[in-house]
Amino acid sequence: MIETETEKPSIFSLQFSTLEAWLKDHKEPKFRAGQIFDWLYKKRVTSFDEMTNLSKDLRESLSNDFRLTTLKTLTKQESKDGTIKFLFELSDGYSIETVVMRHDYGNSVCVTTQVGCRIGCTFCASTLGGLKRNLEAGEIVAQVLQAQRSLDEVGERVSSVVVMGIGEPFDNYEPLVSFLKTINDEKGLNIGARHITISTSGIIPKIYDFANEKLQINFAISLHAPTTEIRSKLMPINKAYSLDKLMEAVNYYTEKTGRRVTFEYGLFGGVNDQEEHAEQLADLIKGLKCHVNLIPVNDVVERNFVRTSRNQIFKFEKILKNRGVNVTIRREQGHDIDAACGQLRAKERKEETRG
Q1: Is position 334 annotated in a ligand binding site?
Q2: Range of the domain at 324
Q3: Most CB within 10 Å of its CB: which of 185, 262, 277, 344?
Q4: What would the pLDDT profile of 328-345 be if each residue is shown by its tens digit?
Q5: Any known ligand binding at 290?
Q6: What's the rounded Cα separation, in Å, for the pair 59 and 63?
Q7: Is the residue at 347 inside a domain?
Q8: Residue 254 to residue 221: CA distance in whole angstroms
Q9: 110 counts as catalytic
């Protein structure tokens, strides 16, 4: 079979040590790895030909073995609050979303790990049409680089990364971990571990694996319900990985790492946002080293949930605080654009998001 461009691995999928090993196999000195990483992550070149301090033969070898992933911008939406949402096209024609969020403390990029999602959360547009494929580590890295190139134009930089875009990160575990190590590498994008957050809907075996990685990366659970009955209605994954087993895994994580976990809790009117639900949530997480992030959900046309009123959100928060729970309400961003995860892709690429 003739090798096509898309069948070559992305150069961004290589961790520094892997690149050194490749160079050794090609009878090249190890220090070339530093030069290549400098071109990729500091100078942010878009072709191997731009790596002018490498020999022509080495550049040809790189081009023969790898592709330098670039993402085509299909749509770019900018909010009044500075949020930027990109719809990128991949080399095979599929599309993904990436979001740049501006905060007082810096710029955060939210990346996607899969084309679509198989988890099937009933409130999420990302799952429309199901899972098409996993992303390579390099395709996840490329999203951060594309966001950084956009910020380069205004003299700003990416200061933090959240893995909360389209897809379930732990359903694409090995590329995810490779991505995390590359963006954390001081020779790569040099984003501090404590400025990276990974979120999962609750694939329990991978929570144990992630705890054993001993990374200092922030960890979040998409919880969204205080009881197994409500969670099963919102998140079908709860039928495979039950709430009680999930809490056991979270306990293991906090004990193994010494780090707290964040519970993401989207509020849906009349479903999980009443006072009794707040009390049940406080009971569920009692004694855990944790934080609760209450999320006023964005409206998604394709899903039928009523937005919780502001007064009810504050009542819910007050009950948790009175019970000693560390809780905040997530600041809404990009409300005037297609802010909900998967929403822009669902609108612009209907052929991908049909069942």
Answers
A1: no
A2: 72-340
A3: 344
A4: 998 765 565 555 555 555
A5: no
A6: 6
A7: no
A8: 12
A9: no
